[in-house]
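Q: Can I borrow your eye for a moment on a structure tokenisation matter? Would you mind producing a protein record, from residues through to fold? Write it directly below this note and I will take it from there.
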Amino acid sequence: MDNKATFRVGSNIAFIKYWGVADPALNLPLNNSISMTLAAAHTTTTVRWDSEGRLNEDEFTIDDVRFTRERADRLVRHLNRLRRVAGVEIRAQVVSRNNFPMASGIASSASGFAALTVAGCAALGLQLNNTELSALARQGSGSASRSLFGGFVEWERGLDHRSSVARQLYPPDYWPLMDIVAVVSGAEKQVSSEGGHQIAATSPLLAGRLSSLDFALPDVRQALAERNLARLGPVLEQDALAMHAVMMTSTPSLLYWQPGTLEVLQAVRQWRTAGLPVYFTIDAGPNVHLICEARDAAAVQAKLQTLASVQSVIVSPPGPGPERLATHLF
């Protein structure tokens, strides 16, 4: 057993979203989803297993904040999954850092649980391939299954634990798309994505969104095959709006948007009308992801920085899968 390992894992932006679960125990989704792994938004995590038996409980420090036992419950549950695979009962010390605002709609749970999974398994000496790691990461956070692969990725809905896994469609250098994130709020959202998934079925619009994916998923696959932003953009905008419509009409209603969210959406439509090929998508939070080709990234970034509600901008090309680092966080 290596005892200690550190990995950096990119977040991802979903072109076709995952919202709602078919099996809460296994975290099986209601539909396939397609995403792009990000190079410039990532989580770095060090896991050290306490083989000496000095720890009474797992310890978590994220972005320099020591988590309480209550706040760490979801993380402990995930470490329990790793312990069961390895057949051990030892505790772990975990230190993790994000280079972007956590729990604000930039998929920190995707990169976070993927990094916890790969670092934890490596430190235990488990020899798992990325497909097996994807299934394991999915149980902590569904979107984490996609961050086990770089570039453009599809998470298969599957029927059980083994079949609900992600796979790479194209490598990072396949298409120089850019995700330009307009951060309008870095605050942690009051209702987590995990909580939102559990109430998705209360929305009268959920069935309509799921049926629309019979057309949207093949469209996105074809747009990627063609490297065709004009085909991709309208589909990813429609699915983002459909997902948020499900959120807004759930019981209780989830309204993640802030005034700045709408300012950015309106601006993107105006810029596109004026000839700038850029499209928006939004994860479970207020911040807006703008998708464009690399040649237009500077123009999009410059326009974003003129909007009063935009606090900061993250610019990211497609990124790699998990990377093991020689330097630990502790």
